[in-house]
Amino acid sequence: MDIIEALATDAPVVGPDALCAEVYEIFSGETDLLAIAVVEDGKPLGLVNRHELTLRLADRFGRPLFEKKPITRLMDSTPLIVDGRMSIELLGQFILDERPAALTQGFIVTKNDLYAGIGTPLSMLQMSVVRAKMRSAELEQAKIAAETANRTKSMFLANMSHELRTPLNAIIGFTDFMRAETLGRIEPRQYAEYIEDVNESGKHLLNVINAILDMSKVEANRLVLQEDYVDIEDVARVVMRMLRETAMRRGINLHLDAPAGLPDIYADGQLMRQILVNLINNSIKFSGESKDIYIRMQITETGEFVLTVEDHGIGIAERDLAQVLEPFGQAEGHLARKAEGTGLGLPLCKALTEAHGGRLELHSIWGKGTRVDVILPASRIIDLKTSDRMQTLV
């Protein structure tokens, strides 16, 4: 922490018996001098400001009246006197709140109650500039260190994901082959259940690895959109077919509500599919006793495209809404903790939506359900006439 002692400038001092004319001559000889302290036995008695003394002596009757008088007649006998051990931050706040005049008149700095020097606005400004440069250098170093750490983390995750994916894909492939009983019936049947568990666990772990890698790409600004015209209604139907069996095992029905003639959107089709998979999977996990999940699409009056996934399941408590949108953040509660997951589903959807220039809005009431709106800007909606014209030009 910087202290005021660093602000003290070495300035001439005078005793209480010095004449006003003598002090005036000192100011005349040192044009950069703002103030002179009046000191006796090392202790400050007052402060003489250059401009105030000059004005008094420049007056028609001022010089003959004061030049032969002791400087104590024209000094400020109650100047701001500060201990050199005080922090500069505290001094700055005190001057702004209590003694703003010190910014033009200067102040006296002491050490062990003895005069140490004069503090001036210039010395405060110089110190501020030095501290700003140091702070800027520290922030630059911190930024470089953070970027290096982020790159190292991304490389580590990429390497680890490759190392983990290879055996996982083998496990999933072999268990898929065994589940199909291509070489004969699995006996005893309990082994078939074990194989099913291994297969599901492998797929779950692979999904976790993929989610972590995707999030690391987003955080490292390495996510590149492969944009094209996307029939978002068709994407939704494909995802619903993928997840229908999972939903049916839980007794859940998936419903799609899309207006006729819904235009295409200009987006990364694979990422939009991933957003839908994550959102619908989340709804399936937390639907509880609810039997229906609704996927809706609409164009708002402002021209934005809104993709909604809504359920009437366990919902999210208001205190947890912000937390579940943070990476690895999960809601509290018995039912929420029972569901598998890394806490990356919603944050990843949010990041992928924002990569498209959109926003994700989460609405939920504990015990009543959750609605997630993926909102893309109007610029992402393909006007059919414009699309035809673009194809003609191509």
From TrEMBL:
Subcellular localization(s) per the UniProt record: Membrane
Annotated Gene Ontology cellular component terms: plasma membrane
Chain ranges of the Histidine kinase domain: 159-380
Coiled-coil residue spans: none
Reactions listed under catalytic activity: ATP + protein L-histidine = ADP + protein N-phospho-L-histidine
GO molecular function: ATP binding; histidine phosphotransfer kinase activity; phosphorelay sensor kinase activity
EC number annotated for this UniProt entry: 2.7.13.3
Domain CBS stretches: 7-65
Enzyme class per UniProt: transferase
Keyword annotations from UniProtKB, A to Z: ATP-binding, CBS domain, Kinase, Membrane, Nucleotide-binding, Phosphoprotein, Transferase, Two-component regulatory system
InterPro entries listed in its UniProt record: CBS_dom, CBS_dom_sf, HATPase_C_sf, HATPase_dom, His_kinase_dom, HisK_dim/P_dom, HisK_dim/P_sf, Sig_transdc_His_kin-like_C
Keyword RNA-binding attached: no
PANTHER family xref list: HISTIDINE KINASE, TWO-COMPONENT HISTIDINE PROTEIN KINASE
Protein name: histidine kinase
